[in-house]
Amino acid sequence: MKKRILYFIQALLNSYAILFFSQNSVLGALLVVVSFFNPVAGLAGLVCVCGTLLIVNQLSYQRENIQAGLYSFNTLLIGIGIGSFYHVNAAFCVWLAVACIFTLILTVVLTSWLGKYGLPVLTVPFVLGFWMILLAASSYAEIGLLPKQSYLLNELSAGQVIEPHILFASFNNVQLPYYIKLFFRAISALFFQDSVVAGLVMSVGLFVHSRISFSLLVLGFAVACAFNAWLGIYPEGIGHYHLGVNFMMVALAIGGFFLIPSLYSYLWAIISVPVAFLLVGAFTKMLSVYSLPALSLPFCVLTILLLYFFILRTGAGKLQLTPLQHYSPETNLYLYLNNKDRLRNLQYLKLNLPFLGSWTVSQGYNGDITHQGGWAQALDFVIQDEDDKTYQESGTRPEHFYCFNKPVLACADGIVEAVVDYVEDNEIGTINLQQNWGNTVIIKHLTGVYSKVSHLRQYSIKVKAGEFVKQGDFLGLCGNSGRSPEPHLHFQIQTLPYIGSKTLPYPFAYYLKQQTD
Amino acid sequence: MKKRILYFIQALLNSYAILFFSQNSVLGALLVVVSFFNPVAGLAGLVCVCGTLLIVNQLSYQRENIQAGLYSFNTLLIGIGIGSFYHVNAAFCVWLAVACIFTLILTVVLTSWLGKYGLPVLTVPFVLGFWMILLAASSYAEIGLLPKQSYLLNELSAGQVIEPHILFASFNNVQLPYYIKLFFRAISALFFQDSVVAGLVMSVGLFVHSRISFSLLVLGFAVACAFNAWLGIYPEGIGHYHLGVNFMMVALAIGGFFLIPSLYSYLWAIISVPVAFLLVGAFTKMLSVYSLPALSLPFCVLTILLLYFFILRTGAGKLQLTPLQHYSPETNLYLYLNNKDRLRNLQYLKLNLPFLGSWTVSQGYNGDITHQGGWAQALDFVIQDEDDKTYQESGTRPEHFYCFNKPVLACADGIVEAVVDYVEDNEIGTINLQQNWGNTVIIKHLTGVYSKVSHLRQYSIKVKAGEFVKQGDFLGLCGNSGRSPEPHLHFQIQTLPYIGSKTLPYPFAYYLKQQTD
Amino acid sequence: MKKRILYFIQALLNSYAILFFSQNSVLGALLVVVSFFNPVAGLAGLVCVCGTLLIVNQLSYQRENIQAGLYSFNTLLIGIGIGSFYHVNAAFCVWLAVACIFTLILTVVLTSWLGKYGLPVLTVPFVLGFWMILLAASSYAEIGLLPKQSYLLNELSAGQVIEPHILFASFNNVQLPYYIKLFFRAISALFFQDSVVAGLVMSVGLFVHSRISFSLLVLGFAVACAFNAWLGIYPEGIGHYHLGVNFMMVALAIGGFFLIPSLYSYLWAIISVPVAFLLVGAFTKMLSVYSLPALSLPFCVLTILLLYFFILRTGAGKLQLTPLQHYSPETNLYLYLNNKDRLRNLQYLKLNLPFLGSWTVSQGYNGDITHQGGWAQALDFVIQDEDDKTYQESGTRPEHFYCFNKPVLACADGIVEAVVDYVEDNEIGTINLQQNWGNTVIIKHLTGVYSKVSHLRQYSIKVKAGEFVKQGDFLGLCGNSGRSPEPHLHFQIQTLPYIGSKTLPYPFAYYLKQQTD
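Output (structure tokens, whole complex):
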């Protein structure tokens, strides 16, 4: 139960933090607080997030995505948007629920569809869902929604900056230079606010989370203001909404999140700002026909197109896409440089994990049970559920264990040196000390570098000695043969081709470590 | 020839019946009759359907799709639409043909593209094709089309209900309560009619076809009217067109066709109605810019999105998608419950068919020729064409037979027990009584449950004894070895691992039976 | 260096020639000249092409696509378009660069996405990119772009023909019949020109390149004019822009480029013209809401839809899609007929190349080194880079050679007759005269027709004698065993199943020959 609550809270905070491409709980909590600067909007957003999390849990979507907040940050924005622009009444609740469901459907569908191409959905579902509400509200004679007096929506639809006369006076009456106030106001635009204080609080959270992210927001801000000043596009200055939501966000996404931060990623962050001007202008003009605001669509379209543009290159060159997303530019950069350094001497042999999906190390190097002495540098892998259990049902048969029958793969290219595949799988609780390693495949990768996977399922091995295998080739199925009280996969690197050979410490080149807290 | 005419008539009737997600010929025939209540529209629709069927036959698209009417129901609607709104002249014929070809192209393209995601195309091609005609007619100074006086198109484009003054007086002067008349008028909207009598006739056909479908139309009607009454969205009542084509159809599609009917499917049918209101309003508003009606687009978009939303769940839970479409809610429900019951004791071993595509049983259990005595529970499979022939050309060589060289698959997981692959394939007309079973694979699935496939092609078998195979793995090619006068596949389940073992009756878990009439 | 310049020039000329579906350098050069009839537009176009080529080279996209001009013809049009409609100033340069980058991104993304379905991108990126500029220019109070006085853009946006009063008088004051002048003006519309002389020059280039293409342009012209005359759609005659860019181009694309030219392809070219009228009208009407011209979008949409419509047929029938594009209707037709004739007697055995991708024959039939006497009909294959080198780095290890470790495939269905896989790979520079053929696979296809691949990598062979293989099945990896001083693949057809058998001349059925100049 406690686990479930923690899981729910983490999903909740991530739904907020991911708006700045983060999974930082402190930043998430700060954003929750800031969203309540406009109490109705904050509450509507929170309700939408909670409702969304309940629905996606009930309908059993991917847990990893739910926990990362991937299904709920668009409905959060829908809640904040509707809460910001409409008065609360019975119809408000109905249409909030309808818009939330429709946006959730769009989120799931687009996340899957764009995901096939390795692309993110960003805030596209929010934009589409919010348009539906705006259109429906102006379409019918009577829908029950009462619009608030909001200069922001008018400004967005008109595409021109209208200087607000009476806006959050208490929040913005701070004695600061114009551009600094504008910067903080722009940051607060993410929540449809126009508040120096809100932007300040969000900036602090963001600065704590990542200095690189913060620097990119400043860069995007500066380039946009300079470009506007040069060409005089907005004579009265860029509106804080487009500044924050489109120009600064695109710099952040391209410069530090989807690309490994570097001089070149910053260069593309700069290039993307004038292109964003093109799209903001064009989309605003097109949508003015429907009296709709462009919202964050220019940012979404440009970021998705640029990403796919980079993905389609045949080589990476100096511009590296983030291979595994750690939701922090610093961590991404650190791991990229670290891996480059760590694996510099392993150019001929970079190991992949010998399985698919997410597994847990049940016994590591120098383990308590069997990984000792000359055999200490080995890893035992199992699959666990959220309660750290390795099985479902009673756990009295191998079939009950999550890892049983899962494919075992070649960790790198090589020639199969030895295969044992006739050892019977043990019943749960018994072990076979005569045939200690059970069914095993040994692959020669280089002279003096052999990998061994053990305890495979009887007769499941599809390769034979002398055969050439490529990285990722199917070897056999995870089983419960040999000295194995329950199904698990034993993996080790060794210097000799024999079944009982001693172990060699050797790093994996590519894997994603999951945070446990 | 008679077969061809039957095939054509079936395709024709299905093009009508599928508008209500049915393949019922009686319903189809009734709908043909109703379409002629507006003679010009009915004729234009019929001409479009016949033309479409000729073209797709000529260009050799998938026969199953042609027969189900999947390529022709959108052009049917185009014909009815153009026939309803324009006067007949030379230009009428030209543009009818052009619109029909364009809609057909869209139908084929979208059917394939959405089909990749397991999604239906619904009436999207009709909507797009009809828009093109409406736009072109108002774009050029002169296109030759003469619009009829039609309040319906005005009403649709304006998005407001305009009470018709003189409408099909004879049809609608029936003494019935308002809501009952509205219900039948809404049903008739599918054919751009506004007629109590037409709706009544269609309802009778639908009621005969499926009580579940009818109950869902009533449910959609009631929820839409209640929701409208509560919020007062359309102060003068919902127009019969949107009511029938969008609100009621979405309830039918979600509640009983794409989902197995259940309390939960009805719940989602109810939820989908308010969401449909959102889309009808939003689309009407957007399209009013172009003076275009939303037609059935809200229904299409919502149904397709909801379906993909459900497909993307990782588990089915209480909401079951229809696994194999039998075009009848009752049949879908019956087969779902029946299979659940029938296969309850087979949780460890659910058999798939040992091949791909559509085959025919040439000799079943207790067959006349060889499936007798202890060997009676066996099945012989061949591939037949529309004339029930098993071969093309002269049929004097194994290569002439449709099933020859087709892949044979493992019907379930297991360990290969025995393989024979050296028996030569017979010439046509001769049989090999020395090696009765020819090339054979026997797989052990459970203790006492073995499957055997026989008469495979010489040297085509890719598995070896002792090897583990997964369900659907390639075993070898269908051949003509052993006691086989012509190529066919022999399949049986047996309790012992030997080549001559006796048979065990055992059901297949998943397959689609084709209607033969 | 010289190679690089040639490569660049070829890519440049192809970017122009491909506008008429050609790779003819003379046509390309003529088009460059014609583009400079409007000097600013010509220069802007040239700058965009050069910039695009630099960027895609820098970011390492597919070389074949770069060389064919596939990434640069859309930015060429953007340059010509912006150069034709705006005055040159500082802002002009900025927005030209921004539009060029955005169009390039769209080109890469759409080329890949449509390519997954086997579809071309045509000028869709240009249309979208140009719309963005038009929209942005009219959206902002001030963007810095000064529009030229252009009747063309007004005409396009209005959808009506406005007779120009003062247009390129010197170019059009030619004494020719109205329709002939209109034909040449229509051809020149591709570059946003309205000039009889330009059209004449382009027509000459096109006529030299392909008489079929020219005839299709005439056909499209005639059908469009006749259809318009009949229905009186444009009472004052079709505008030269739509005539050239939409009606004539669609006839060219369908009648002779994407389909093998035939009576049926010409028939579909004729059918496509009225459908294009539907789309031109509909799109013009829709886009008039945004004051945007339809440009070449009707052509793009119709061609892409029709192509996919044809691709989705289950059989080719009388309408053949171009299987391998040679960028010339005549060549496509010749090769299609030639192959049909050449391979008529090979109906049971049509050979594919035994590898993937693009390889070079290093020693052909009757070669200088080893392909002599009874063993003369053999082919040695290697992979070369643009400098004709077969290796990278120092070339002192087999791994340095491009072809090493590449998969070797079965050229046709058959039964594996013999396998040798134990011969060690040679170090570079040494050869193994004891085991002349190295690791080898021999496949029996028909009685008296065996294929042999030799010099494979040790232990890489995945098939065994007696096994049935399908065309394209993986046999092993290219290696350096036997009489092989450097890694290469030896391929031959022979009449006997033995390793040293003599060769039989036999053609490949399907391959694409690359032009070398």
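Chain C touches chain A at residues 58-62, 91, 94-95, 98-99, 101-102, 104-106, 108-109, 112-113, 131-133, 135-144, 289-290, 421, 457, 459-460, 462, 476-477 (CB under 8 Å).
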